[in-house]
């Protein structure tokens, strides 16, 4: 026999789990010092430039 569940509770539980996951990502960004954010941004920019520099022109 199938287990009976309350669909409203299931929907709210899923929304709560999604919100927790989103909050964890934002804590990672906003919990950093300005120096750490700037350094991360520079590293990402350098990686993008390196990748663009390795593209082949056909």
- The count of helical stretches stands at 2
Low-pLDDT parts are none
Overall strand count: 0
Largest sheet: none
Distance separating the two termini: 62 Å
Description:
There is one protein chain. The mean pLDDT is 90. The N and C termini lie far apart (62 Å). 76% of the residues lie in helices and 0% in strands. The chain is elongated and about 60 Å long. The chain is mainly alpha-helical and 58 residues long. It is built from 2 helices and no strands.
Core attributes:
58 residues, mainly alpha
Topology:
Elements: H1 7-30, H2 34-53
Task: Give the gist of this structure.
By secondary structure, the protein is mostly helical. The chain has helices at residues 7-30, 34-53. The radius of gyration is 21 Å and the shape is elongated.
């Amino acid at each position: 026999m199938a287990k009976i569940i309350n669909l409203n509770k299931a929907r709210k539980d899923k929304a709560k789990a999604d919100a927790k996951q989103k909050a964890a990502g934002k804590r990672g960004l906003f919990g950093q010092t300005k120096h750490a954010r700037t350094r991360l941004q520079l590293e990402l920019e350098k990686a993008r430039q390196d990748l663009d520099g390795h593209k082949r022109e056909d």
